[in-house]
Design a protein that fits this description.
The chain is α/β, with parallel strands linked by helices and 359 residues long. Helix content is 40%, strand content 13%. The chain folds into three domains: 31-117 and 306-321, 3-Layer(aba) Sandwich (Rossmann fold), CATH 3.40.50.10800; 120-207 and 326-352, NadA-like (Rossmann fold, 3-Layer(aba) Sandwich), CATH 3.40.50.10800; 209-287, Rossmann fold (3-Layer(aba) Sandwich), CATH 3.40.50.10800. The structure holds 1,3-dihydroxyacetonephosphate and iron/sulfur cluster (SF4). Residues 73-74, 147, 161-162, 206, 234, 248-249 line the site of 1,3-dihydroxyacetonephosphate.
């Protein structure tokens, strides 16, 4: 007997062929203090505010907080930049974060310390291929992760971040909607399992999170039986299956502070340890392994593109105005609809994910 049920095509993600090495900024003795003082003065002079992600260096995160800026996950970075009064937003993170800030604030100048700061998820999902995929499934609501280009967001009905993806998809599922999800297949799979929604998943992945290994975490758990496991949902399902807490960077930091366990195994970019240590005095924080014995890793739990953000680059853009982020106004006007849906939903449902103070 033949079946007339057509199986939807699973889209191939664009392979990310070049992942740069992780190069941390190395400063000469005393240079950090000199750069920091100059940057602080320029932030005031230029009416600028620094919005940083938790994966950037401790020096950048500290500077953002000391100058009235923000350190947070993608959702709160977007909300903070939108609410900020400053005329210039300096976004220390990767390009989609700068673009999101520009889309939400077309009248503001948005600068980034390094224009090469990409994201493998964004790179895996070119707008033309994604648009063709959406065209082939016109009956589906298009939900994209924040880690996408402005043009992909412009093709979407909703944009979500990891802190609110489950709630948004559950809401759409309850309305009887079938979805397209892009680009992270692991986050999509996680959200699909929790909500039961009908989702076609783009097959992108994060080069950092996909390297975490369940086997390595099990070995650590054997050594530290009382440890809790905290996992970012861009990780593979086998790793998520071992988690006590799954969440965005802000949600993981909050959980680290609140959990009773004194030892925590953390599967996300190790830039998160700067803030996590500040909010968990006395606790032992362990990096989840990215490979078994003798294995190599591409990123070794640190995003090579996030590492491109440094104090020298920050000073340079404040002095020169270089590395300004531009988004085509037509694309921006369409993309903002998808972003605003999420922000309004977050406001209505009370999803609070503000960054955590280190004090
Ligand atoms: P968060 O929104 O959880 O900070 O994640 C952003 C990201 O790029 C994680 O790799
Ligand atoms: Fe993208 Fe992964 Fe880097 Fe986050 S850690 S910015 S998802 S490549």
């Amino acid at each position: 007997m033949t079946s007339d049920i057509s199986v939807p095509e699973i889209p191939a993600a664009r392979p990310v062929t070049h992942v740069p090495p992780v190069v941390e900024e190395v400063l000469a003795p005393g240079e950090q203090d000199v750069l920091t003082e100059r940057i602080k003065a320029l932030l005031v002079e230029r009416d600028a505010v620094l919005v940083a992600h938790y994966y950037t260096s401790g020096a950048l995160q500290k500077l953002a907080e000391e100058t009235g800026g923000c350190v947070s996950d993608s959702l709160e970075m977007a909300r903070f930049g939108h609410a900020a009064k400053a005329k210039t937003l300096v976004v220390a993170g990767v390009r989609f974060m700068g673009e999101t800030a520009k889309i939400l604030n077309p009248e503001k100048r948005v600068l980034m310390p390094d224009p090469r700061a990409e994201c493998s998820l964004d790179l895996s999902c070119p707008a033309d291929a994604f648009s063709a995929f959406c065209d082939a499934h016109p009956d589906r609501v298009v939900v994209v992760y924040a880690n996408t280009s402005a043009a992909v967001k412009a093709r979407a009905d909703w944009m979500v971040t990891s802190s609110i993806a489950v709630q948004v998809v559950a809401h759409l599922h309850a309305l009887g909607k079938k979805l397209i999800w892009a680009p992270d297949r692991y986050l999509g799979d996680y959200v699909q399992k929790i909500t039961g929604a009908d989702m076609l998943l783009w097959q992108g992945s994060c080069v950092v999170h996909e390297k975490f290994k369940a086997e390595g975490i099990r070995a650590l758990k054997a050594q530290y039986a009382d440890a809790a496991v905290l996992v970012h949902p861009e990780s593979p399902a086998s790793v998520i299956a071992l988690a006590d807490v799954v969440g965005s960077t802000t949600q993981l930091i909050r959980a680290a502070a609140e959990l009773p366990q004194q030892t925590l195994i953390v599967a996300t970019d190790n830039g998160i340890f700067h803030k996590m240590h500040l909010v968990t005095p006395g606790k032992t924080l362990l990096e989840a392994p990215t490979g078994g014995a003798g294995a190599t890793c591409v990123s070794c739990a640190h995003c090579p593109w996030m590492a491109m953000n440094g104090l020298r680059g920050l000073l340079h853009v404040l002095e020169s105005g270089d590395n300004e982020i531009h988004v085509d106004p037509g694309i921006g006007r369409r993309a903002v609809v998808a972003i605003n849906r999420m922000l309004q939903f977050a406001g209505q449902t009370g999803v609070t994910v503000a960054g955590m103070s280190g004090d």
